[in-house]
Amino acid sequence: MTAEAETAALPFTTSELMVAAGSRELRDGQLVFAGLGIPQLAAHLAQYTHAPHIRILNEVGLVDPHLIELGVGNADPRHWYRAASFSTFVDIVGMTLHRGLVDVGFLGALEVDEYGNNNASEVLRDDGGIRRFGGGGGANDIASLARSTIIITRHERRKLVERLVHNTSPGFLTGGDSRERAGLRGGGPRRVLTDKAVFGFDAKTRRMKVLSVHPGVTHDELRDATGFEIDIPANCPLTPPPSEEEVRLIREELDPKGMYVSAF
Amino acid sequence: MPGQHPSSIPLVSKVKTVAEAGALVHDGDHVALGGFACARNSVAFTHELIRQGRRDLTLSAAVLGLDADLLVGAGRVRRLIYGGGSLDRFGAIQCVNRAYEQGTIVAEYYSSLAVCMRYLAGALGVPFMPIKSLLGSDLLTRLEQETAADNIREIDDPFTGEHVVLLRALLPDVAVVQVHMADEEGNARILGPRWDNDEAVKAARQVIVLAEEIVSTDVIRQQPEMTFVAGFRVNAVVQAPYGALPTSMYPYYDHDEDHLRLWVSHARSDKGAAEYIDEWVMGCRDHFEYLERVGGFERLQEIKADSLLGY
To answer: At residue A179, what are phi and psi to the nearest 5 degrees?
Structure first.
């Protein structure tokens, strides 16, 4: 059976696997920044399963929403439903994140380099010009200040790159202790979660390292899709699949319209 | 005026028409916008600024939305001070992004918290605020070397030696904010989250409040803890029902998805944006005519929020 056919036969989608993998990184009682899409689904899945007391923050100024319908973004009141508190950016991003209270921040990325620095601003067009995106918003604040971050990106050669077009959200800069030397307080990236693998970081060099490969992804495929050198241990484990119950929760409770789990 | 009942408390009336309030903004002014992506933008006021021909504006906000995209699309903006921007899943702020790519605006591009810290310094009357974001990033490099050399510094904290970034106080000429209710003096109430509104409004030299309804001051005084800005700071109060449309106004009305998509499809090109502005902004006498043309009472009923859900 080819890798593709094997994947097709699996009783879960890649995005469901990513939601479950994100969820498992969270611990009960943590304070979490989780934006739209897979991060938010991962945080809610954790609340439904092993970590019911996670409190989710939204930069618009709210704490602990319990939505019943997914909306179009942070600014959509569907994402504010049954929040415990409405306040301001300075309260949430300032007096909570900047204060050092946020355990985990999820970050999306246009590009990521081997030290977990990431780009949320602009990419190069084929003609060499700049393609500008709306900007990182609070992404730099999260990357700078959260105790740990989890970066989510599509696994392509043009996204996992040797050199970023714009380092919007610093990871471990040039590795080693360069992040600390720059004066950054937050702990930096803990995981990079893609549609092919889960990465962690070497404690000393701070380079990305493969922790697990998703079922159906070959090691060659993983190397080909990565724009920098990666070592894949011969006995590299498979990313644990989502349980039947996790898949059910995602499909029936969290994203019944498939708005976000179809992203990958 | 509907909703204005006599009160025994003598008030200074700051009630103005949207045209009178628009005239408080001058060419070249810095306007702090009150919206966030596709939520609670002061669209009625933005349309009025475009109709009045205001230009060379500086716009600021932690997160830009439709109002900034319209003003940039209309060619009225010289400088942006911001952390990000989008129309959520409806699309990008395409006019802003295109202007950035083509270099037709100066973009002071920070993190969202950094913009709020600059407002906060302005609001407190201190010269700067320190921040621990931006360090080690290309945001900082570009601000220092290209767009904001006079507004940003790195220093070591004189008390502990810790390396920090200093952000210069930001004092907008005018802050504009769409609110749920205000009395005629400008004591104003916002329901839902307030993102950067508190600091922007208090940092600004002038404040324009656009209210879904103008109420008796006794309504405000029954729950004064709900007042986010006191009237003494406010220069103009404009009655602007559905003034945020097509953006949302939790918990009064939802975004108008069809009309946001219409803007996104036009904003793909300068020509399309110009056509939209001709038809929907210049081609409308005022926001009431705009509301009629997007579907009138029937459409407003469709997007009215469910009172339990708030959307």
So the answer is: -65, -50
